[in-house]
Write a structure and sequence with these properties.
The complex is a heterodimer of chains A (about 260) and B (about 270).
Chain A: H1 3-26, H2 32-49, H3 63-93, H4 95-100, H5 106-120, H6 122-135, H7 142-171, H8 177-189, H9 202-207, H10 212-221, H11 236-259
Helix pairs in contact in A: 1-5, 2-3, 2-6, 3-5, 3-6, 3-7, 3-8, 5-7, 7-8, 7-10, 7-11, 10-11
Chain B: H1 3-8, H2 10-30, H3 32-52, H4 68-98, H5 100-106, H6 111-139, H7 147-176, H8 179-184, H9 186-194, H10 207-213, H11 217-229, H12 238-265
The chains are: A mainly alpha (about 260), B mainly alpha (about 270).
Chain lengths: ~260, ~270
């Protein structure tokens, strides 16, 4: 690609990213649902299941330390999924058709919403992390753990946004919104959401090791769970899982985009 | 018969309530956006919690109910009925924004019948949810010592819980008339759920939550369901459950009718 081409790509991507973020400034409380829901789940799950940390062999003595990375991932997923719902609204309103008729390469049209998801997720993730750190035992994983938690959350928001974009392009209706968020919900909870693998029973014990989110959670939990110390062994499975999911859902989104007719 | 006489005729209003309940049922059961949160989401959470937190039975003080899924299914029913109530509120807000509500108001229909029709429809959804969730729990190995009587009492409590939730949803929808606001209330359903001993016994909740749960009427309803399902007063009082359930229905439906009158006046 020439320098001119790169500059063009950058300017289109930046303009679409900026438009997605401007929405947040215009719609008051736009980030509230993606922040409040995981925060309520965090506090509610802590209240309900907090005594689970008393089980022999549980990797931390603070249950909130186990839950915070889960809620961060959930928030990042909801923020990512919201970009899919917004795209569906743009499609219904005819705005996306105008973008399709522009000379911009089609894959670039997805770049803006994905970049917006990465940026948007930072707010709820940080709010939840601060709440968790205030109530919980702190960052046992230090700076490396913190970086891994943010990397896991931001990358997961990319996965969720690609999933949302795929569904939005297929359904072309805002009614697909709940399906996008439910998909994120299912992916996050069919994992080691509440307890580590050895404590899972029945079908979830079989399913969770095959869910890539289990390894993304492990990567993020290096930040707060004292029993999951920061190490390459706890990082690479998460990175691999994220790369695989981004590739899979990225290809799905591009395939769906190619099928869109003007 | 004048419109005033029609509004006062109990038989006619009964038919109106039945018709509106039937419409509410059809709308909620036909659209995926209503079905997913009311039926699929609670089932999913039941499956995750039953498998993911069943090690809790090893905790000292956890009551012995045989299968863990049997203990948590009451929380799932509660969650389902709360979400059904929210969906009822969303549907009312949709009717207000779409103009159907204005057509209802111009008909010779008593204001309370409009609210009660929606509440009755949601109560029937609560019954369907309870039957489904209890069947799934039985299939997953739950053993309800309370037998058929316990199951019937639980289903009745579910209907009361759904009615109260629908009354609350209707109140907010009629006060605000905003579909987008109702849709954003989804997380707050979980505040009501998590401040009750929905999935854990009250004695094992976080101390702060344990204190708050005393003031949440849903605590008594969910414990009443457990008491009925396992025929055990130690797990919860069925009478307290019914008292809390009926009280909540009367309170929320009264608030909804007031909200309706205030909307009509404005």
């Amino acid at each position: 690609m020439s320098t001119h081409g790169l500059a063009y790509t950058g300017s289109v991507g930046f303009a679409l990213w900026r438009r997605s973020l401007l929405e947040l400034a215009r719609v008051r409380g736009g980030l509230l649902p993606t922040t409040v829901a995981p925060l309520i789940f965090l506090l509610g799950s802590l209240g309900q299941f907090g005594r689970l940390d008393q089980l022999v062999g549980f990797p931390t003595t603070s249950y909130i330390a186990w839950l915070v990375p889960l809620s961060c991932l959930q928030a990042a997923g909801f923020a990512g999924g919201a970009t899919g719902a917004n795209l569906a609204r743009d499609i219904e309103a005819g705005w996306f058709d105008r973008l399709l008729s522009s000379p911009a390469p089609r894959p670039l049209l997805l770049l803006g919403p994905v970049m917006a998801a990465m940026t948007r997720c930072l707010v709820p993730v940080t709010v939840i992390l601060i709440a968790g750190l205030v109530i919980g035992p702190g960052l046992t994983g230090g700076l490396f753990g913190l970086l891994m938690l943010y990397l896991a959350a931001i990358s997961f928001s990319v996965v969720a946004s690609l999933w949302g974009i795929t569904l939005a392009l297929r359904a072309r209706s805002q009614q697909v919104g709940p399906l996008i968020q439910n998909g994120v919900f299912i992916a996050v909870f069919l994992s080691t959401a509440y307890t580590p693998l050895p404590f899972l029973k029945g079908w979830l014990a079989v399913a969770a090791p095959y869910n890539p989110v289990t390894y993304v959670l492990q990567m993020g939990r290096q930040a707060t769970v004292s029993g999951i110390e920061p190490s390459w062994a706890h990082t690479w499975p998460g990175l691999l899982a994220l790369a695989g999911m981004i590739l899979f859902f990225g290809l799905l989104a591009l395939r769906q985009l190619r099928r869109v007719d003007l | 018969m004048s419109s005033f006489a029609i509004e006062r005729d109990l038989a006619t209003q009964g038919r109106v309530i039945a018709a509106l309940a039937e419409r509410a049922l059809r709308v909620q059961l036909r659209r995926a956006q209503f079905l997913l949160p009311s039926f699929l989401l609670p089932l999913l959470l039941l499956a995750v919690i039953a498998s993911g937190t069943s090690a809790a039975q090893q905790l000292p003080g956890f009551p012995s109910t045989g299968s863990y899924v049997g203990f948590v299914v009451s929380g799932t029913i509660m969650q389902g009925t709360l979400l059904a109530g929210l969906m009822a509120g969303i549907a009312i807000a949709g009717d207000i924004e779409g103009g159907f509500f204005d057509r209802l108001l111009s008909a010779p229909v008593h204001r309370a019948s409009i609210v009660l029709g929606r509440v009755l429809g949601t109560a029937l959804i609560g019954v369907a949810q309870a039957v489904l969730f209890l069947s799934v729990a039985l299939a997953l190995g739950a053993d309800f010592k309370g037998g058929v009587v316990g199951v019937v009492l639980t289903i009745t409590l579910a209907a009361l819980s759904a009615s109260a939730a629908a009354g609350l949803g209707a109140t907010i929808a009629l006060r605000t008339g905003s579909l987008s606001l109702m849709q954003n209330l989804f997380p707050f359903v979980f505040v009501l759920l998590f401040t009750a001993p929905a999935f854990f016994p009250r004695a094992l909740l976080n101390p702060v939550l344990e204190t708050i749960s005393v003031a949440n009427p849903l605590s008594y309803v969910v414990e009443g369901m457990r008491g009925a399902l396992f025929d055990s007063a130690a797990l919860g009082s069925v009478w307290a459950g019914f008292a809390a359930g009926i009280g909540s229905v009367i309170l929320t439906c009264t608030l909804a009718v007031w909200a309706m009158r205030s909307r009509v006046r404005s």
